[in-house]
From TrEMBL:
Official protein name in the record: PTS N-acetyl glucosamine transporter subunit IIABC
GO biological process: N-acetylglucosamine transport; phosphoenolpyruvate-dependent sugar phosphotransferase system
Protein source organism: Planococcus halocryophilus
Domain PTS EIIA type-1 span(s) in chain numbering: 507-611
GO MF terms, alphabetically ordered: kinase activity; N-acetylglucosamine transmembrane transporter activity; protein-N(PI)-phosphohistidine-sugar phosphotransferase activity; protein-phosphocysteine-sugar phosphotransferase activity
Length: 636
């Protein structure tokens, strides 16, 4: 469920990305600025139709291949739902929820039926053409159900919204705290969508009913803004002051190295309200500071509410939106006074905690005992690798922020098209995933922390070429042997079916473990999903087998059926290519199970761990298991 919500949160970024354009057009066209009605109408065209934009964007975001067919399914779902439901109850207005629900249904149905096959006389309606048809039928049924079920649901949502709205400072404070606390998971987009586009109602001069904090503010609702105002002091003053505190607390010899980076991300936050580069610079290095940051955000929201400040944004709470929407705001100058106080509070708290508890913020990371000079020469291989990695990412000018998790660099870049995947792999990357236009993940392995730490000072000093580019990167050759394990929670059932031991597979090579340890599945599902996070290292031309290397260096082979190589690809449809980075639950292979049963000696599907030496595969579950079931086995 958490993974599914994350996917929805990421999909929401498609429609949310339209807001800056809508807000600019809407504001510049109003009488207090340029007074051009058709500009306001153009912006309103987006704001007033956010629900269908959400339906299209979410469906496309959930589609496994991002195909436009999913977007069409989302639009069809929305049109069918909203047209049919009012015939049962003409007072129902689901607002943005209709778009979210339609997008989810459209995306899921696309993934389920995009390659469905029919007899020859119905073949025209097969594949992606069938998706809008089944979507329309599904949404017709759903509209019939929701026609009676939605009013109490909406009443519950309205009650919750009214409670939060009437909870005053505590309501807005709780929202501000959760907004920042959930940012690392991406789930903040989910609660933002509810607050920004559904909370509260306002009837404008034309009689149109507008829902949501942002929509109401931009349409002139004088009560809107409490759920937006308190972000301005944080983004324009608080986080830039945190950067100043980190700079002052940095080690003397490293201030020049981190100063440029901190100034750049601080100015970005002040001007545009884009705060992730700052937050990710200390989020994982010093989690206590991030929790305090979330608490201070909640406090700022509460204070802004208490001072009766109403201000809003179309994109984010930076100086651009502050100035642009100044004419619509109530008591906007108080935000500047608040900002100065918030900035001072952030500086004092951050500096005190960094010094008191020796927190490892930028410029204070641990170094070798012999000092920086020896660190540079003693880790030449990492330094050289850092140089090439930055160049592979498009150079210093293209890198915005560096972050990492257990095995991956999580990079914020200006343009992912400038990232050179071949160059990164040449210098040790196991794989590269371009999440979107500005986010790239580079799979490194467990040495990622050292590489990220080596990259940060290089980025701050314009990445000068190392004195010896011929240094051999020994970490790259030793990495796989160092960590070959899979925790139970990190392995999921790849397809619905019955787990059986390898010894029961009717093939001597598999049954005797000649290819390695593992288990087998008698599948009853028609789609094979990745059981682990990793990289697809091989997709057999006959499509019957896929090899994956996990983030921790374990190689596994999934072989669907026995002697299926002889089918020459019939009965299979591959959904990934070699070198694709995959997450648990990503679709790999579509199966025509009836065809395989009729044409293969057995549909037993061995899953073999091919490169284990000292490690042992321990089965935790057996018998029938649903796809996605976790803790099937562990490798240790």
């Amino acid at each position: 469920m958490f993974s599914f919500l994350q996917k929805i949160g990421k999909s929401l970024m498609f429609p949310i990305a339209t807001l800056p354009a809508a807000a600019l057009l809407l504001r510049f066209g109003q009488d207090d600025l340029l007074g051009i009605p058709f500009m306001s109408a153009a912006g309103a065209g987006i704001i007033d139709n956010l629900a269908i934009i959400f339906a299209i964007g979410i469906a496309m975001g959930l589609a496994h291949d991002g195909n436009g067919g999913a977007a069409l399914a989302g639009a069809v779902a929305y049109l069918v739902l909203t047209s049919a439901i009012v015939t049962i109850n003409d007072t129902i207005n689901m607002g943005v929820f209709a778009g979210i629900l339609s997008g989810i249904v459209g995306g899921l149905l696309y993934n389920k039926f995009y390659n469905v096959k029919f007899p020859q006389w119905l073949a025209f309606f097969g594949g992606r053409r069938f998706v809008p048809i089944v979507t329309a039928a599904t949404m017709t049924i759903l509209a019939g159900v929701l026609g009676y079920a939605w009013p109490p649901i909406q009443e519950g949502i309205d009650s919750a919204g009214e409670w939060i709205l009437n909870a005053g400072m505590f309501g807005v404070g709780a929202y501000g705290f959760l907004n920042r606390l959930l940012l690392p998971t991406g789930l903040h987009h989910v609660i933002n969508t509810i607050v920004w586009f559904d909370f509260g109602t306002f009837t404008d001069a034309s009689g149109e009913v507008v829902r949501g904090e942002i929509n109401r503010f931009l349409k002139g609702d004088p009560t809107a803004g409490p759920f937006l105002s308190g972000f301005f002091p944080i983004m324009m003053f608080g986080l830039p002051s945190a950067c100043l505190a980190m700079y002052v607390a940095a080690k003397k010899e490293r201030k020049a190295v981190v100063g440029g980076m901190l100034f750049s991300i601080a100015f970005t936050s002040f001007l545009t309200g884009i705060t992730e580069p700052i937050e990710f610079s200390f989020m994982f290095l010093s989690p206590i500071l991030y929790v305090i940051h979330a608490l201070l955000t909640g406090v700022s929201m509460m204070v802004a509410y208490a001072l009766d400040i109403h201000h809003g944004f179309g994109f984010s709470a930076g100086a651009i939106d502050y100035v642009l929407n100044y004419g619509l705001a109530t008591n906007p100058l108080m935000l500047l006074v608040m900002g100065l106080v918030v900035g001072a509070v952030y500086f004092v708290i951050f500096y005190f905690l960094i010094i008191k508890f020796d927190l490892q913020t930028p410029g204070r990371e641990e170094e070798d005992e012999d000092g920086a000079e020896n660190a540079g020469s003693g880790n030449k291989a990492v330094d050289v690798r850092a140089f090439h990695t930055i160049e592979g990412l498009g150079g210093v000018e293209n890198v915005v922020a560096v972050d990492y998790c257990t095995t991956r660099l999580r990079m914020t870049v200006k343009d992912s098209d400038l990232v050179n995947e071949k160059e990164l792999k040449r210098h040790g990357a196991m794989g590269v995933m371009k999440i979107n236009k500005t986010n790239v993940q580079v799979v490194i392995g467990t040495a990622v922390e050292f590489l990220a730490d080596a990259m940060k000072p290089r980025l701050a000093s314009s990445n000068p070429a190392p004195s010896d580019l011929s240094v051999v990167e020994e970490e790259k050759t030793n990495e796989a042997a160092a960590v070959q394990a899979i925790a139970a929670k990190d392995f999921e059932m790849p397809i619905q079916g019955d787990i059986i031991p390898l010894s029961e597979v009717p093939d001597e090579v598999f049954a005797k473990g000649m290819m390695g340890q593992g288990f087998a599945i008698m599948p009853t599902g028609d789609t094979l999903y990745s059981p682990v996070n990793g990289r697809v290292v091989s997709v057999f031309p006959t499509k019957h087998a896929i090899g994956i290397q996990t983030d921790t260096g374990v190689d596994l082979l999934i072989h669907v059926g026995l002697d299926t190589v002889k089918l020459k690809g019939q009965g299979f449809e591959t959904l990934v290519e070699q070198d694709t980075l995959v997450q648990r639950g990503d679709a790999l292979l579509k199966l025509d199970l009836e065809f395989l049963k009729a044409n293969a000696p057995s549909i037993a599907t061995p899953i073999i761990f091919t490169n284990l030496t000292e490690q042992k595969v321990t089965m935790i579950k057996d018998g029938f298991q649903e796809q996605g079931t976790a803790s099937i086995l562990k490798v240790e």
